[in-house]
Amino acid sequence: MEMLVGSDWKEYFDLLIVQARKPRFFTDVSRPIRVFDEQSGSHIWDRVTKLEKGVIYYEGTVKQLQDLTGWRGHQVLYFGDHPYSDLADVTLEHGWRTGAIINELTHEIATLNNVDFKKNANWLQMLTQLIEDHQDCEDPEEQKVLHKWMTERDKLRNDIKIVFNPQFGSVFRTYHNPTYFSRRLFRVEWVEIIEPKTGEHMYANLATGECVWDPPEGVPVKRTDSNQWWELFDQNTARFYYYNATSQRTVWHKPTNCDIIPLAKLQTLKHNTDCSPAATSNQSTQTGELTGRGQVLSLSASTPQLRRKSSDLCRSSSFSQRGAEAPLYSNWHDSHLLPLEHFLLTNSRDSDSDHSDSGSESLTGHEPDNEDSDQSEGSYLPHRLTHRPVEYLNLPTAAIEPRELKDRPPAPMLKPLAEPPFQPEREADMEKFAADNLNLGGRGLFRRKASVRDLLSWSARSLQRPLLASSKPVARQALDMFRQVQMYMGDRKARPGVSLNSLLMEILGTAHAQPLLRDELFVQLCRQTTENPRRDSLLRGWELLTIALAFVPPSPVFQPALLGYLNRHRDPGFSKVFPDVSRWPIHVQVNHYATVACQRLERIGAGGKRSARRPQMDDIDSARKQIFQASLFGNTLREVMQLQASRWPNRRLPWPQVELSEQVLRLQGLSTEGIFRVSADVDEVNRLKGQMDRWEFSEPSDAHVPANLLKLWLRELYEPLIPDSLYPELHLQVGQCGNQIGSRFWQTISKEHGVDSTGRYIGNNPLQLERIEVYFTESDSNNYVPRAVLVDLEPGTMDTIRGGPLGTLFKPDNFVFAQNGAGNNWAKGHYTEGAEICENVLDVIRQEVERCDCFQGFQFTHSLGGGTGSGFGTLLTSKVREEYPDRMVTSFSVVPSPKVSEVVLEPYNATLSVQQLIENTDQTQCIDNEALYEICFQTLKKPTPTYDDLNHLISLTMSGVTTCFRFPGQLNADLRKLSVNMVPFPRLHFFVPGFAPLTASGSVAYRKLSVKDLTEQMFNPRNMMAACNPTTGRYLTVATIFRGPVSMKEVDYVMYDTQTKNSSYFVEWIPHNVQTAVCDIPSPHAPISSTFIANTTSIQELFKRIQEQFSVMFKRKAFLHWYLGEGMDEQEFTEAESNLIDLISEYQQYQEAEVDDYAPDTDEEEEIIEEE
């Protein structure tokens, strides 16, 4: 400075600051101003309380400069040389006037006048128009030409950009993609506003917030007209809307070809542009009150005299805030702020160390205008949305007290404006989530606590710690996952050879395996899509967020906050304004991503019907494609019909169902063995599925392919064709054992549904009645009657039930019995005594089925050891299978055990019964008396268990198995879906059930239940209700049903961990062979409980014991004459034994099977081809 000006250069300046370190001088709040010592070349640590001329100061912040000098707003004329930090920011945030010394201007002017540049720019403009005119071409040759044009256009765009600057192109770029700086140059800061109710004119400065009655002199003013729309902000939905003051019309979408006046920003500017508070503190005001929407707003109004006085002190008033009070002229208060915005504002003040003027604190949205479909780097720039949303009130004219023009209120009294369009309220409690869960740091000596805004804003840097405090146990994985997210978004360089899909597999695989990281992932994505200045990175982030919600859900705690974040970026009107995907501007694409993400969140989150699933490469590709191309699979039937309406508006049936059904018939599916049961080639099914999503169809060669795809389409419908509440079941209890078990079952579920012994509803939970029709029928007297048929071949059992606690609950006509009994003889129950009353029972069954709208199936309880339960029970299963072949048949069958056997004929009865169950039931729950006794002895510590104890255990298991049918939960299940998921091969439908917790009565007070404890009990062989050891076999499929207030995230984690640690006990050739359901309604037995259903090959142990005993007896023809005397043939015993041996062999075969065992033999295929 001495060389340029002279030794007295300090006299030319009122204030000298060195080492200001822009832009930190404008953004930091904790760097104090110090005096600079010219002798030592360092600063002095003494605190500076006032600034003096001639003294050189060191560092500091703009806040301290304003506080110590009082220089604010247009009082400051600032010259700088950086078009962003020196010009645009200080104008927006501090209201300074700015001057520019821009070296880039010379270079850009020369470039713009270059002949080659003009030629390329003109050709780019024409090429862009050609591409737009030929977007709809479908001819392959035309598409090739179009692709070449698009490639050339992208190259031209890049060449034009790097001519100016390789990183961000032209500094002065305008038109569709103006830079942040050029928008500041071309903006008209003063606008004329006409209040629609009174017609009064006022003039507002959009940059500083100043508001005056008279037009300012020497500056351009944007005049109002009928084509002027006001951009306002709705605090309920955190969205902008638009109001025309002339027509008084309000719309959500942004109007085109008109002038947009951003009044929302104007009304939320802070007091940085106001005069000194002391200058106006002595002004007295008189208060008027305006009423709207049931609340009173107090508005300050100065008298005309005071207005003239104050004009000498302050050029004009602004939308200011004094201390913690609400702005003087605004129609909002802190109570009207969105939770997240209020919380961010509070945190920014706290982190600013008593700095209450946090006018620069803001969230970032997307500017709807100034964007096109340009995909070039750096063409997207953020647009700030201020913290303070405004609640706009539509007041009647009569509410405003009339006055003469001279008595009108000062200009700052902005009248309440237009009411936003109606929008349903959405809950989004980000404030509470941030306060309770964000990992703000700040502990320890000299550790600075991060602000919420810092943690929720985009950053190209790595994380130093997880964003969520709950992620600390998996901190290393959380940090690695953030780096992978940055790689996917393009914010970090990826490793060589790493593809986007492989990154997705790693990210989603980690989130699926570690439920603790799911919320961490979603918070990281919210952070990286907030204030993101890079267009491609922003879109990649939204794509990743949308794909992630197809596989893993957030926790119920974070879900409302995530939903609120997504809703902030949605605008339903965009789908109508921008129907062409290829021409969508970026803000419309973000809106579309947010809309799809909301739908996926609704379906996979808490209360949804989908659960977390492990990502596969094909699934990831489908999830990405379905963002912009809706799929025929996985949606509701209504959505499928809407998709096909554009092609076939007159079709009444869904195209997938019709086309696939016709394919099955054309390929002779009706005569194909195992149709709809045998699995088809997975690749063929996926290929056909992809074709159908493109509305194409090529006829496969195998009928199993369309049959499997039809099942897949029906299974993946988000809402079943028939609601679960319309799927009633008919319960049949046969024989003494079956009736005892059935009666205890009805006692258990009646209590769960709030039904007393007379059938009256005495419960207090609406969910108890939501699906009560599955098992109960409501009578004309408003009593609930069990849908049950009670059968026995002797009257004693029926008399016992009638005299029991539920005797009056059952319908009297549904008691069907004979007089003689079966005498433990299977043949009597099946051929003679049972056959005599079989038709009577079927008549009762027909009457019950006819009363059901959408009958689901039958549920049997019986014993395989006695005569009635085994003989007559299996006769009824064959009859209902014959008469109702398309309905599900389930049985809870008590299998005899030699250790607790009471009937010598049990091996014969059980073998003959198993043969019938193989053919006539869809699923059989095998319950073993030996296992039940062991549970009572060892687990429940009962020295002398009774039949009532055994029946109680069985009823708890039956209640758990049927929970998904009777109550809503996070897995929409019915008998058929359970069968589809659990039965890989038709004959292997015998299950091992279990229940947890099982605790001795003396230990109940000491137990503390958790999901992990329940899972360990379920998989413990000692707690399974069939005497077989699963560790000696392998699980084909497993279903677990949890009840009570348990976290789905914890359930998924524990089940995955269990399966991983015990992978050798699960067959690897059935993917996703563990199904989980959660029902919020607890069992009366325990606060949380779980039911276990396993299709395991170890169940062959039960059948081996029966077969060995049968073989020993049948070899000597022992007791055979009792059966032959009832009309049976000896050949039936031989066939039954052979069928049982085959069943055992099948279980053994699949226990030893490996994945390669089912791979095609390539050598044989080559030989066949050569022969052909």
UniProtKB/TrEMBL annotation:
Annotated ranges, domain MyTH4: 458-624
Domain Rho-GAP intervals: 635-849
Family: Belongs to the 5'(3')-deoxyribonucleotidase family.
Main location: cytoplasm
Task of the protein: Tubulin is the major constituent of microtubules, a cylinder consisting of laterally associated linear protofilaments composed of alpha- and beta-tubulin heterodimers. Microtubules grow by the addition of GTP-tubulin dimers to the microtubule end, where a stabilizing cap forms. Below the cap, tubulin dimers are in GDP-bound state, owing to GTPase activity of alpha-tubulin.
Protein name, per record: Uncharacterized protein
InterPro entries, sorted: Beta_tubulin (IPR002453), HAD-like_sf (IPR036412), HAD-SF_hydro_IG_5-nucl (IPR008380), HAD_sf (IPR023214), MyTH4_dom (IPR000857), MyTH4_dom_sf (IPR038185), Rho_GTPase_activation_prot (IPR008936), RhoGAP_dom (IPR000198)
GO cellular component terms, A-Z: microtubule
Taxonomy, superkingdom: Eukaryota
Annotated segments matching region Disordered: 274-294, 349-381
A GO molecular-function annotation: metal ion binding
Organism of provenance: Tenebrio molitor (Yellow mealworm beetle)
Key words of the record: Cytoplasm, Cytoskeleton, GTP-binding, Hydrolase, Magnesium, Metal-binding, Microtubule, Nucleotide-binding
Quaternary state and interactors: Dimer of alpha and beta chains. A typical microtubule is a hollow water-filled tube with an outer diameter of 25 nm and an inner diameter of 15 nM. Alpha-beta heterodimers associate head-to-tail to form protofilaments running lengthwise along the microtubule wall with the beta-tubulin subunit facing the microtubule plus end conferring a structural polarity. Microtubules usually have 13 protofilaments but different protofilament numbers can be found in some organisms and specialized cells.
GO BP, one annotated term: signal transduction
Annotated transmembrane regions: none
Localisation: Cytoplasm, Cytoskeleton
Keyword Ubl conjugation in record: no
